[in-house]
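User: Here's a structure from my thesis project, written as structure tokens. My advisor, Dr. K., wants to see whether a designed sequence matches the one we expressed. Can you design one independently, without my sequence as a hint?
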């Protein structure tokens, strides 16, 4: 059960952007490029799918966990985030319900998606207008062939984690987060595909017999 909730916490860190400390802006060209990339990924994208490797480092930069998986997103309200290694776990929003499925434990938790979304902000579901009403670019920096964009919330009374997005040749390739425990979460994104049709059954959860379901799912509207 502890593993289950640790994985859930890590998923939230992957999907939700929290506070980033303010840093000075780089030159106007970098900032304009950041605005173009934000528009590309938060306004012009309707679907996303990719594979990823997720590293967790402690405050001494030692690897404490390594996970692999894939994700599928269909804006504005569907997502499948699936860990394959070292064990299989699925987080799925189908538009009505939010499912958390630990395959090894044969256990599923389901809650109304509306209630779930009310407690947190799904940044990957945002369009550009929604993003810019809640966040602003704190800094834009170049490092080798990477452009790094750091966001911070507009609400100054919030506090939380540092978040940086890394783009290589205009493609989102890395998300880096530092949490309140000084752990660093690095998500390396591979084979990212934008705006291609995703089969509807990707956002369905087919459970085998005997799986323990905690909660009562709401009916989907056809």
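Assistant: Designed independently from the structure alone:
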């Amino acid at each position: 059960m502890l593993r289950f909730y640790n994985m859930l916490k890590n998923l939230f860190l992957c999907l939700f952007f929290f506070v980033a400390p303010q840093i000075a802006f780089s030159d106007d060209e970098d900032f304009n490029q950041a605005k173009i990339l934000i528009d590309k990924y938060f306004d012009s994208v309707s679907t996303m799918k990719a594979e990823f490797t997720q590293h967790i480092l402690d405050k001494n930069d030692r690897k404490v966990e390594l996970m692999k998986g894939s994700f599928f997103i269909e804006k504005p309200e569907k997502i499948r985030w699936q860990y394959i290694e070292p064990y299989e776990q699925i987080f799925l929003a189908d538009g009505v319900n939010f499912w958390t499925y630990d395959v090894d434990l044969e256990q599923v938790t389901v809650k109304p998606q509306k209630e779930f979304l009310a407690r947190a902000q799904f940044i990957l579901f945002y369009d550009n207008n929604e993003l810019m009403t809640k966040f602003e670019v704190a800094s834009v920096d170049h490092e080798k062939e990477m452009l790094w964009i750091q966001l911070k919330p507009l609400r100054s009374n919030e506090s939380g984690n540092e978040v940086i997005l890394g783009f290589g040749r205009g493609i989102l390739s890395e998300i880096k987060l530092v949490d309140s425990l000084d752990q660093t979460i690095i998500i390396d994104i591979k084979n990212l595909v934008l705006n291609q049709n995703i089969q509807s059954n990707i956002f369905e959860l087919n459970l085998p017999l005997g799986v323990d379901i905690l909660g009562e799912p709401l009916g989907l509207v056809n």
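When you compare it with your expressed construct, this may help: Helices lie at 2-15, 28-42, 113-119, 128-134.
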